[in-house]
Amino acid sequence: MGGGFALFLFVAFLGAVAADTDPDPTAAPTPIVTDPTPTTEPSTTEPPTTETTPVSTSPYEIPPTHGDDPQLDALWDECAAGDPLACDQLYEQAPEGSGYQTFGADCGGRQPDGTQWCVDFEGVGALEFADLGTLPLLTTSTGVAGPGCDLAPMGYDTASIRANWTSAVECLGDRWEETLTGLEIPYRDPGLVIVESASNAESPCGQNYAGAPAFYCGSNETIYLLMDNMNVDDGWPMEAYLETVAHEFGHHVQHLSGILAAEWEHRFEVGPDTSEGELSARRTELQASCFGGMWLGSQNYYGVLFAGDLGFNYYLEWWTFYGDPIHGSEASIEDWLSAGYFSNRTPNCNTFAASPGEVSY
Predict the structure, then answer these.
(1) Looking at the keywords, is Membrane present (predicted)?
(2) Which of 120, 155, 140, 178 is CA-nearest to residue 295?
């Protein structure tokens, strides 16, 4: 079984692996928070003694009772009740070598050898990379619904930034929930962590956040927005930063629909640093920009953000600053961002059916 999944808007190559390439099989949602340094306090209560009764032939020593972490205990219960997503999340979040981790790896006693993600072992939500281009999400003519949202006032002070970005994520959730549920894709709100300094960013994905203005971690389904790396004091219109927010939400849409897990598995089958691996990553990143453009275009149409093409030009200039082999050339970014922005239709964001030349760097 693998580790967490982090998807960065900006990629800094660290060693042999790009900074936005950690696996994410699936995970459960985290409440929206905006504390600078989110942490989980140790429990001060006595460990529960409720026994679980999964049937197991596992070679692991699986403890019969909970431990001392309420959050992991809850995942334990869900895993024992047969939820494969909870088992995978328990495996990812538990301390190395703990009873929690072995119980998650074992899928609550249902996978004795612990060699597969539980969602794959139990046949839940597993997609093949070759089939991504034919998903209903990418072939059914649907878009992000209106009307416009009442976003919190924009401003360059910390409180205003937090309020505005939080209201944008809430709006994105409201609009995308209608789209996804209409396609029978279960929807969950993402978590949101906004920090003033990237050094305060902590996530289960365990990445180095130097240079990344934002990233998405699928292990806890959370969007991380890093104010200092976003350069919010450089005089850009505050509306322009919402492109970053919308892009990261695009990764959440990919996560919920199973795209991220399938693409990640394929990328590591071919090698993340190979030309095919980078091509696979670009399909994911350019699609996230296209999904983000859908929401931005819709909100601009309703007069919430910039008026007319002015907004798109700001978004394009902001986003193409980050062109690289993973996120695509400036021309590719412009093509896919505009496809979402001006059409508001998911089939126009089908990067997985596009030719390599259409997702080039």
Answers:
(1) yes
(2) 178
Cβ 331 vs Cβ 286: under 8 Å: no
Whole-prediction pTM value? 0.70
332's tokens: 């590719």
Pairing of strands 17-18, 13-14: antiparallel
Query: Per the structure block, which two tokens stand in for 355?
Result: 């030719």
Give the rounded distance of the alpha carbon of 29 from its chain centre: 11
> Is residue 176 packed enough to be buried (19+ CB in 10 Å), middle (13-18) or exposed (0-12)?
buried
Nearest residue to 215 via CA among 203, 199, 231: 203
| Structure-token pair, residue 334 | 């412009």
Exposed, middle or buried by CB within 10 Å (0-12, 13-18, 19+), for 274?
exposed
The C-alpha atoms of residue 90 and residue 86 are separated, in whole angstroms, by 6
Tell me the per-residue pLDDT of 117-168, one tens digit each, with 9 for 90 and over. 776 665 445 688 999 999 999 999 999 988 889 999 988 899 999 999 999 9
Question: Where along the chain do its domains lie?
Answer: 6-26+126-359, 39-124
Q: Give the pair of three-digit tokens for residue 294.
A: 């859908």
Separation CA 207–CA 159 (nearest Å): 26
Residue among 34, 15, 24 nearest 194 (CA): 34
Alpha helices in the chain (DSSP H): 70-80, 84-93, 99-105, 118-121, 136-139, 158-182, 227-230, 242-256, 259-270, 275-301, 309-320, 330-343
- Sign, CA dihedral 33-37-43-48, equals positive
